[in-house]
Design a protein that fits this description.
Helix content: 40-55%
Number of helices: 8
Bound molecules: dinuclear copper ion
Largest sheet: 5 strands, mixed
Distance between the termini: 83 Å
Number of domains: 3
Structural class: alpha+beta
Radius of gyration: 27 Å
């Protein structure tokens, strides 16, 4: 029996398919390059996760093709006679057996990956504690010569396994450096562990991947993977106490910094500032960003951060110091920039 084929329907299928392809193509292309892309892999765990992702994309695409082919078949080439047994097999096979098999394979392959993402039995090469704060990152590198405190950035040597010990004092965050590996929750009262092994040098970006409050979206951090030598030199510089300001403006900035109570929340090792509430500022001038990945480390952004803290990062615990005279803000910014 000839079937009246509605021409518009096939046109709709084609245009929808074409549009979908364009969207997929655009997403894939935009994700190929990016410091924060899980597909721009630069770590052992990220490679395995991306591998699983592409298998799932390919599998999903094949299943989508099958479903569309079945839909086209049933709409355009509807069989003359009904086959109840065939229909029953199709429903049972396609609706129950096939998904169970696919999900079982995905589950087993996912579980098989997990041992590779755990702490290796022979230990890690490097241990780093990170605490998710509102809304910044408290970072401590554990070294044989003692701990080194910093904030809001992670630097790693290439081809070394870094063990991250993650926690939070109050709300739940999630620590995620997409190009290096999977994410891990930071839970109050617990320490979770994550092993990351960078496989190439480069600049990347980490984020908080769990909604944690007003400035969740402003809780990022730069990640730099370097050679072991560059990493060692950087860590040694971070270990040193803060430089003593020599210029007149920087000295005035330090006085203003201490006089206005900044040291009650911030530490600048080697000075009277020994607060523990906010980020350690001993080497803030050398950091790759300001305000936890929000601003560039420039003089203009430093003054903006000091004067308009709450506007840059809504809900931030640090008060804005916009009420200070402009020359004081300028001097404090110069002092902090000098802390290399
Ligand atoms: Cu911290 Cu979201």
């Amino acid at each position: 029996m000839p079937i009246d084929t509605p021409p518009r329907l096939s046109a709709l299928f084609l245009s929808a398919g074409a549009r979908l392809s364009i969207v997929i193509f655009a997403i894939v292309l935009s994700a190929c390059d990016g410091r924060q892309s899980a597909l721009n892999t630069a770590g052992r765990a990220a490679e395995r996760i991306a591998e699983l992702f592409w298998w799932m994309v390919a599998g999903g695409f094949i299943i989508w093709l099958l479903v569309v082919a079945l839909a086209v078949y049933s709409i355009h080439l509807r069989p003359v006679k009904e086959h109840p047994r065939l229909a029953a097999w199709l429903i049972l096979g396609g609706g129950a057996v096939f998904p169970v098999v696919v999900l079982a394979v995905l589950l087993v392959s996912g579980l098989a990956m997990m041992p590779h993402l755990r702490v290796p039995p022979d230990g890690a090469d490097l241990e780093i504690s990170v605490s998710g704060e509102q809304w910044w990152w408290r970072v401590r590198y554990h070294t044989p010569a003692g701990p080194v405190d910093l904030a809001n950035e992670i630097r790693l040597p290439v081809n070394r396994r870094a063990l991250f010990l993650l926690t939070s004092p109050d709300v739940i965050h999630s620590f995620w450096i997409p190009p290096l590996g999977g994410k891990m929750d930071m839970l109050p009262g617990r320490t979770t562990r994550l092993v990351l092994e960078p496989l190439r040098t480069g600049e990347f970006r980490g984020v908080c991947a769990e909604y944690c409050g007003a400035s969740h979206a402003f809780m990022g951090f730069p990640v730099r993977v370097t050679t072991q030598e560059a990493f060692d030199a950087w860590l040694e510089a971070q270990r040193a106490p803060a430089v003593v300001p020599t210029g007149a403006l920087e000295r005035r900035g330090q006085q203003a910094f201490l006089a206005n109570g900044c040291g009650a929340c911030h530490s600048v090792r080697g000075t009277a500032a020994d607060g523990r509430v906010g980020p350690d500022l001993t080497h803030v001038g050398s950091r790759l960003s300001l305000g936890a990945g929000v601003l560039a480390n420039t003089h203009a952004e430093f003054t903006r951060w000091i004067a308009q803290t709450g506007q840059v990062k809504p809900g931030v615990h640090m008060p804005s110091f916009g009420m200070l005279p402009e020359h004081d803000i300028n001097a404090i910014a110069r002092y902090l920039e000098s802390l290399q």
